[in-house]
Each structure stands twice: as structure tokens, then as C-alpha cells.
Amino acid sequence: MSDTECNYMACCLTIAGSDSGGNAGVQADLRAFHAYGLHGCTVFAALTAQNPFGVSAVHAVPPDFIAAQLDAVLGVYAIKALKTGMLADAAAIEVVADRIAAHAEIARVIDPVMVATSGARLIADDAVQTLASKLLPLATVITPNLPEAEVLAGRPIKCRADVREAAKSLHGRFGCAVLVKGGHATGDLAAAEDTLYDGKDFSTYTLPYIANPVSTHGTGCSLAASLAAELALGRDLQAAVAGAKAYVHRAISTSYLVGRGCGVLGWGVDHGQRG
Questions:
Q1: Is 181 an annotated catalytic residue?
Q2: Annotated catalytic residue, options 219, 243, 245, 268
Q3: Active site residue 266
């Protein structure tokens, strides 16, 4: 049978760092893609030595090798959507932006990984500038958490009105949909209340709070990856966000131990949700 007679399985691409513990990064992304019944392609932008207790070493992947990985998969596999994760320096961001700019047919979920849960900045100021000028304008949707939205919008976010103003500002600046994740919320903001602005309407997504989960490590990666999977399956953005949030909620609720003090997210979809 020729290629033109084949029905290709939809593919998703992750461009991110690895997690040697299998909780986050590329490993979490592949788990999400496979949960949706999709083939996953990978581009490693960094290698890390880590477990749930911390990151002990990071090895940056040279930009020319990032480019070679992108060239190997783009235009060859039937990639319907991609997501990006941590891109630690300006050179990596530039090469990713250069390659994906030529593939407007691919839905692009850009997770602007900049600020850790601890509040520590994860990338240099010049990389933030490159992210904002080169990569974010290429996105279908960006998925900043609250601290990242504050950095990009250049303003504090203390209440729901601030979230909406930041989302609207970022849409105006980058021309893409904006999903502000609420997992870092305190005070007036409800925990894990996510807000989507698509350029016309606001949508708010909440699910019941999960007390004392075994693991929440990798939830940001998993949300972006499952959102890419939803878009790859042809779902509209509002439905895709709802599906992705449900995926992460179920993954947290089914998380389990894989070692002493080491938990991992569970299976995020049932077989009825698979593509």
C-alpha cells in the first residue's frame, strides 16, 4: 500500500527537557500522548539528573543538535500538534522558533517555562526576551502559570480581574490564545482555577480540589502535552482545555508511589477518551 493510501495515526511532538525520574518533561509528555492513543515524537532540548527531591545536574543540548532533531521529524511524521517545555537559553529558543515557523499546519502549545514553584527564575533575562520576541508569537496557545504570566505581562496578579487583564494583554502582545494556570494561586484566587482568553471570550475551568495527592510533579508539562493531544485529535480550543484539565486532574487523583517518597502521576484518561 502506498503512503497516499494509508491512514496515518496522528502524531504529537514534544520539544523539552528530559526527567531521569520519569515524572516530568519529555517522559511526562510521552505518557500523555500515549494515553490519548497518539504517537509521540521527541526533541530533547536539555538533559537533567533529577528525582522528586530536586535537580542535581543539567546538561544543555547544543543548538545544532536541537536543529538536527527537529529536521529529522518535521515534515516526515504526521505531526498535528506540538508542545514546548523548558528551553533554557536564547540559542535553543531561536532554533526552535526558526524550525517550527515553517510548519503553520501544526498546532503549537507553548509552555513558557520560566519560574519554578519555589519562585526561582529558570532562564536568563535574554532568554525571556527571545522567548517573547521569537517563540510566543508563533503559538496557538501559551500556558503560563501565575508567576510566568506576571513576568510576561510585567505586572502583579493578585485577583481574578488581574488574571483576565494579564491574559488579554498577552493575547494583544503575542496574537495567540492565553491559558493562565492557577495552580500557584493564593489569597483571593481559587487554587487551580485556570483562565482561557481566546481573543474574544474568557473561559474559566475548575475541578474539585484533591487533598494530599501522592504526586503533583509534572502537572504543568502534562497539561501542555494533553492540550496538544486534544488539539491533535481535532478538538476546538475550549473543549481541548477542558479535556486537558480533566486529564491532569485524573492523573493527580490516580498518582502512585514508585519508590521511597517518589510518586508519579497516574493514567490521565480512560480508554473511552482515547483518540
A1: yes
A2: 219
A3: no
Residue 270 belongs to a domain: no
Cell of 65: 543538535
C-alpha grid cell for residue 69?
Answer: 532533531
- The domain total for the chain is 1
Domain that holds residue 26: 9-257
Kindly report, residue by residue over 60-84, the tens digit of the pLDDT: 899 999 999 999 999 999 999 999 9
d(CA 100, CA 116): 26
Residue corresponding to grid cell 487523583: 253
Asked if the structure places residue 150 within a domain, the reply is yes
Radius of gyration of the chain (CA): 18
User: pTM for the full model?
Assistant: 0.93
- The reply to whether 216 belongs to the active site is yes
Of the residues 218, 243, 263, 268, which is catalytic? 218
Residue 14, classed as helix, strand or coil, is: strand
CATH value at residue 205: 3.40.1190.20
Asked if 48 is an active-site residue, the reply is no
Closest by Cα among 217, 206, 205 to 255: 217
Residue 3 lies in a domain: no
